[in-house]
Design goal:
This protein is about 50% helix and about 20% strand. The chain has helices at about 15-65, 70-100, 115-125, 145-165, 210-215, 220-230, and strands at about 5, 10, 110, 130-135, 140-145, 170-175, 180-185, 235-240, 245-255. A five-stranded mixed sheet has the order 4-6-7-9-8, with helices on one face. The protein is globular, with a radius of gyration of 22 Å. The structure holds adenosine-5'-diphosphate. It comes from Reticulibacter mediterranei.
């Protein structure tokens, strides 16, 4: 047999080992690439709001001196928006690290899902007036769980649906139930997700590699957080998608036995 040259190492007589080594190496490279992408994206995501905050604070100081109340008020609302964005980002990073350590805590309260979805849809519609959000609730469904954590599941899916679809398109959120389960489906008419990457998007820090997707800022934490919360409630999440046509995410949660 011929010696095989892999990554600078010569592996003689062991073609199986060589293949394992190649796979290992490319998986490691992919992880490293993902980490580099994450750090790069995270730095931008942190730096941009900070730059905006600095600028607006300087403006605020100038206008307060000149008593330009209107300009000052508008600077304050930009500051507030950027602070909210940073807070969300930092909270998501903390959530991910708590999830990794298995230390995320869940409250137990009765959650009316139809009410929760209405609130999320309204808040999101307010933030994104150029999309049309359609909410369909065929049932009244309640669950024993953590309202904020469950809210995170649906607002992440809805905000992705908006983020990865063009303005003026419709995003649907649909609540239904069977005897045993509650189902929420979020559908968009946007970019879609290539078949071979559909499993990976649920992994921590994974982002779809297409240029269109990459141009949209994000850190690849949302779907990981969603998946972990759904797993906590012994539910499932799945995705159906067609590139260029759109995607549909379905969350199925078992009804609480004592709800
Ligand atoms: P983020 O959006 O911050 O990158 P997520 O974990 O929420 O992170 O999503 C992971 C990746 O899955 C995204 O980068 C995006 O490429 C893809 N994705 C998620 N939701 C959608 C969607 N509705 N349509 C198209 N692509 C999506």
């Amino acid at each position: 047999r011929l010696p095989v040259l892999v990554g600078g190492a010569i592996l003689e007589h062991h073609p199986h080992q060589a293949i394992a080594f190649v796979l290992d190496n490319s998986a490691r490279k992919e992880l490293e690439q993902r980490k580099d992408d994450f750090i790069n994206m995270a730095s931008h995501e942190l730096r941009n709001p900070l730059a905006a905050l600095k600028l607006q604070t300087a403006m605020l100081r100038r206008h307060l001196n000149k008593q330009g109340i209107h300009t000052a008020a508008s600077a304050l609302s930009t500051i507030e928006t950027q602070l909210n964005k940073l807070t969300r980002l930092v909270e998501e990073l903390l959530d991910v690290s708590k999830m990794q350590a298995g230390k995320l805590e869940y409250r137990r309260e009765t959650v009316d899902l139809d009410v929760l979805l209405r609130e999320i849809a309204d808040a999101m519609q307010h933030l994104h007036p150029s999309h049309r959000i359609l909410l369909q609730r065929a049932v009244h469904a309640s669950l024993l769980g953590d309202r904020d954590r469950l809210g995170q599941v649906f607002s992440n899916l809805l905000s992705n649906a908006i983020k990865y679809s063009p303005d003026a398109t419709t995003v649907e959120m649909e609540l239904s139930a069977t005897e045993e389960t509650i189902r929420v489906r979020v559908t968009d008419h946007g970019l879609g997700i290539p078949q071979e990457q559909r499993d990976k998007i649920f992994e921590r820090f994974y982002r779809v590699t297409g240029t269109q997707q990459k141009a949209i800022p994000g850190l690849g934490m949302g779907l990981y957080i969603v998946t972990e919360i759904v797993k906590h409630y012994e539910g499932t999440i799945s995705v159906d998608s067609a590139v260029g046509k759109g995607s549909s995410f379905t969350v199925t949660l078992p009804k609480s036995r004592d709800a």
